[in-house]
Amino acid sequence: MSFCSQCGVKNVDDARFCQTCGAALLAAPAGAPIAQQPQAAPPPPLSPVAPPQAYGPQQYQQPVPPFQPQPPYGGQPQYGAPQPPPGAYPPNYYPPQQQAMPKRKGTVAAAILGFFLGGFGAQAFYNGQMKKGGVQLVAFWIVWLFLLPWPQPVFDPMTGQVGPSSGPVTIRLIVGLLFAAACAFDGYKTAERINNGEQIKDFGFF
């Protein structure tokens, strides 16, 4: 057996060229020691390799916060909690506030009261306008008693009788009818506005 002087590979005895690298082989003299195959150096120790990083949904997972109990939805008691007595509201429950609706007023009734009892402020009191009704009551009777002329007795030569003068009576009749019509219209329109949900002032008209 012969060894290659270049790569150290053992070849057959009669080989003239190395079967691995192709270098010419020299015949070893008789009695010459057989060349030992060089020992390969041991490989360096391997460095620790980090485990492969996992890709996918696990790479983006966030730390899960600890569970915190949530308050019961809508004030309903949790499962297993003591139930409130019948007719009582659950804990932490506040009933919705209901807006009080204004009481409806009769428009025809307000107009009738204003026409026949407008001198007493009846339509204003009926519609909840207390101050307006009081002022209307006082003002009407001051005008009716002290500012309008009173009829005077007049002798009628045609009939020979004494009767009231027609002038003051006519004036009072016209003023009374106009005042009654205005109170009737005011009572009707004010009641209609109340029924429509409008805000009515205490001294508002029509």
Molecular structure report:
Helices cover 31% and strands 6% of the residues. With 206 residues, the chain is mainly alpha-helical. It has a two-stranded antiparallel ribbon with strand order 1-2. A hairpin with a 6-residue loop joins β1 (2-3) and β2 (10-11).
Based on secondary structure, the structural category is mainly alpha
Major β-sheet profile: 2 strands, antiparallel
Low-confidence spans: pLDDT under 50, at least 5 residues?
none
Topology as H/E string?
EEHHHEEH
- The total of beta strands comes to 4
Q: Helix amount, in percent?
A: 25-40%
Mean pLDDT: 77
How is the largest sheet built, in terms of strand order?
A: 1-2
| Gap from first CA to last CA | 136 Å
Q: What is the gyration radius calculated from CA atoms?
A: 61 Å
Overall geometry comes to rod-shaped
User: What is the number of helices?
Assistant: 4
Strand content: 5-15%
